[in-house]
Every structure is written in C-alpha cells, then in structure tokens.
Amino acid sequence: MIVKFNKSAKLEVTELGSMRVVVIGATPEGIKLAHLLFERGDEVIVLDDKRRRGEEVLSQLDVGVIVDALSKLRPYKEAGIDKADIVIAIHEDDAINITACLIAKSYGVKRIVAIVSDRETAEILRKFGIPEVYVRAEILAKKIIQDLEPVTVLSEGEEFKILAVKLDEVSRVVGRRIADLKLPDWVLPLAIVKNGKLMPITKDTVLEPNTRLIVLVKREHEADVSGVFR
Prior knowledge:
The chain has helices at residues 28-40, 51-60, 74-78, 94-106, 119-127, 136-148, 225-229; strands at 2-5, 11-14, 20-24, 43-48, 64-67, 86-89, 111-116, 132-135, 151-156, 160-167, 187-194, 197-200, 211-218. It is an alpha/beta fold. The protein has 2 domains: 2-136, NAD(P)-binding Rossmann-like Domain (Rossmann fold); 149-229, 2-Layer Sandwich (Alpha-Beta Plaits), CATH 3.30.70. It has a 6-stranded parallel β-sheet with strand order 5-4-3-6-7-8, sandwiched between helices. Strands 9-10-13-11-12 form a 5-stranded antiparallel β-sheet. A two-stranded antiparallel ribbon has the order 1-2. The longest helix has 13 residues, at 28-40. The protein is elongated. The termini are far apart.
C-alpha cells in the first residue's frame, strides 16, 4: 500500500502490484520518466517536495504521488521504499538526490539510479556505493550526438553488434513492410523504437519515419548498415 497525495490535499490508499519504481523529483524529466514507466506497465510512485508539482503529476498520470519534505525519512517510508525494485533520484536539488540514494541503499533497494547536476556529486555517490550515476549535461550531449548519428551501437559481442538505425522521411525503407525488404544475410531486424517504446517486429511491420530500427549485424558489416536502410 502507498499514500497518494491528490488535488484536494487528502491522503488516500492505493493498492499496488508486484513491481514498484520510486521516482524522486517531479522535474520535467522526472514526469516524463514516470510517464514512460507507467506506459510500460510499472507501478510508479513519485516523491516531490512541492505541492504544485505533485498536483501536476496527478493531473497527467494515474500514479502514486507523495508530497513532503524529502530531507526526512517519512515520505520514503510512506512510499514503501523498502519494497521498491528501482529508485530513481532525478530532483534538481542534488542534496535531495544524495539523501534519497542513501536512504534507498540503507533499505536494501537492489537498483538505484541517480541523475545529478555535476561530476563532483556523481563521484560522491559512487564512493557511497551507487554505481548508476549520470550527469545531466552529459546525458544531453550524448542524446544530441545520438540524434545526429544515423547509426548507433547499443551492444556488441565477438561476432555480432546490435545497432539502432535512425529512420526519417527520406530513408529508403520507410513505408515498406519488413517482408518486402531484400536484406542481406548478415543483418537481422529485431525491434522498433517508437515514441520511446520498444516494439516487436513481424513480417507485416511497416517501417515509419521518426523511429529507430534495432538490428543484429555481423561486426564486419557495421559500416554497411546505413546503406541498407538509409
């Protein structure tokens, strides 16, 4: 059970399922993240220290929201942080992010992710045993580079790589079904990323612009992928 803060400033109880993600900070990025997690089917609880932002989340999403002083233990206990599968600290105040991560760690949360403002704070958290720490400016820079690059590497092994191929209006495969593509035997389409969602591919999938096609490719043909799909 969690406590939900609604627009009338009353506390109500909401039943949860088995998966629990606690997001610390109803920042624009935090709200977007909560939205993506909710769409994915996760049970989401958002913690913030500003009532206006808590109300904004509730106006957009059917998720748990707790508004309280995040320097205190109470909101974390009300969120059931001891039962959380993931805690994501994304508040604009890094002191709150540090507090949230340390509380989550003390309660044995298996996965803790922090998005902070600078490398100094990131190093502090890593010294406290929080390995998944990201700096906002670096995330933005990587996102810009990723958007500029037509093909990015997601994962790689000894023989194969998994790549994301950006499809736009002028891509040669846009508007065509997977079944209609005459693809070489060294590449295998795996999935599509559309509006932030990973979607499976079938032979009848029609490729659309403003999406990313996830493909498995032999290492020696990585440079050839763009010519096949772009």
